[in-house]
Structures are given as C-alpha cells and as structure tokens.
Amino acid sequence: MTAAASAVEFERHRDHLTAVAYRMLGTLQDAEDAVQETYLRYLRAADSDIRDLRAWLTTTVARVCLDELRSARARRESYVGQWLPEPIVGVFQGLSPAPMGPEDRVTLDESVSMAMLVLLESLTPAERTAFILRDILGLPYEELSEVVGRSQAACRQLVTRARAHVREHAPRFTPDLAQHTEAVQAFLAACSRGSVDELVRVLDPDIILRSDGGGVIPGVARRPVVGADHVARLLLGVAARRAARSRAGAVNGSPGLVFEDDKGVVGVMAFTVAGGLITEIDFVVNPDKLRRVEPA
Questions:
Q1: Are 244 and 217 spatial neighbours (Cβ–Cβ below 8 Å)?
Q2: pLDDT tens track of the chain, all 296 residues?
Q3: DSSP calls for 61-99
C-alpha cells in the first residue's frame, strides 16, 4: 500500500481515534498528539497483516495514551489549583465512538461530560484505560490485555475497580435536554440580576463548583467550593469584578456558557443538572485551555 493510500485509510478513523484519546487524556492537544503518533506507527506497520484496521488503530492509540497518562500524572498532581479537562465547545463529530442509535445517546453524553472526565482523573492510568476501552468502547478483554500489558484476569479486576469507583462517585444528572437548558437559562438570568436568593434556588444544596485558572488567573478558587450559598456568592462576586459577556454554547455535548471580553474568550462553564437543579459546575478560565474556543 502506498503512503497516500495509507493516509486515506487512516483519515477514515481519525475522528474515532481523537474521541478515544480525548476521553483518556482530557485535552484535545494531547489527543491530537497521540493520534499523530498512532499515524506514524501505522505507516511503519502498513505493509504488515492488519486484519481489522479500526481495532488495530484503537489499541495502538490506547497504548500511546496510557504511556502519556503515566507521565502526565505527576504533572497534574503538581498543577496549581484544580486541573479540569479542556472543554469542547460546539460540534465535534469525533465525540461519537461509533455509529449509534438513540438508546446510546445518554451513555455517550455522560462519557464526555466535563464532570465525568473529572471523575476519570481520579482513576489510575490503567483503571482509566480499562474502563474506557471496555465499558465505553466495548473492547474484548483479550485486546484490553494487550493494551495494558496485564493478564485478562488482572484486566477484569481493573474494570471491576473502575466501575465501582465510577458508580460510587458518578455525578447525579438527568438526561433531559430541555430540563438542562432551562436550568442554565435560569442560572444566567439570576446572575444577570445579581440576586443571591434567585441563584440559590437554581442550585442544588450540595452543588460543587470547580474552577481551573492554571495558576495564572487571579481570584480563582484553588479548591472545590461546596454548597449553594457559597457558590452563589462566589460567582456573583466574580461577575461583579469582571466585565464579560456571556452566550450559550454546547460544552462537551450539553448546554453551557461561554464568556468573552473585548480580547476574546475568557471562560467556559459546563453544568451538570439533576432534578431541575444544577449539581455541578466546571469553570475553565485557564487561557491555555481556551485557545480552540472560537469567539462569537
């Protein structure tokens, strides 16, 4: 197969590979780097007997991501403040791991939500890899064993531990687009009026606010803020200090908010909604993670 033909074959799977890598690494830049490394490995192996190209590429990009996760773990532990994933604003076709029907939509949306990606950060690299490849992509244990370099029995234990952790700490959410949209609109209206009481009524009593300023944005809480009153007062205080316009946007597949000033995008806010109330807010203001967000 010529290099040109190999490139054409690879491009058919690029979105899928980017989706896998993004779930594993949490940033599009790292995901794209992993996909590029996968492409180089494919070119070196293109003349070998690859019976199922999609499966081969999936396991290869997973190996690349697992190596990156292991090296990134130390960097993220020393990160200033809270580390949040890079938000995806707008439509990104690669979020779909495979052609799917309506019954799969809820699982897809949850697997790429900011809150779920934050939760996956608390798994070990091997657990995260095993959970994503097995429970989200449905990879057989035989192939999973090759990726993580452990026996199938050990892989089953990894998946079991990861499932238990995700089940215990999974964000509460209602898979209802209209309800989610209504909650975000009510949140925005309360913030625009500067009403603490009105904003508290939109928030779950045990809401968690996480903010990522990367250590370069002043005034950003470096630990999660918990409780409706605390979150409401903090957000209204930030809104009063910073003059930024807000607009609605799809953030990782769900309704969210994008904030801009005269210089460009300054923040992206993702929401988790359950029972009509906002249960989690992930607020990314780290400029390095906003470079791909197009201004209005």
A1: no
A2: 677 778 888 999 998 899 899 999 999 999 999 999 999 999 988 667 788 899 999 999 999 999 999 988 777 777 888 899 999 998 544 444 343 343 333 344 566 789 999 999 999 999 999 999 998 888 999 999 999 999 999 999 999 999 999 999 988 887 788 899 999 999 999 998 988 999 999 999 999 999 999 988 887 888 999 999 999 999 998 877 777 888 988 899 889 999 998 889 999 999 999 999 999 999 999 999 999 998 87
A3: HHHHHHHHHHHHHHHHHT-SS---PPP-BS--GGG-SS-
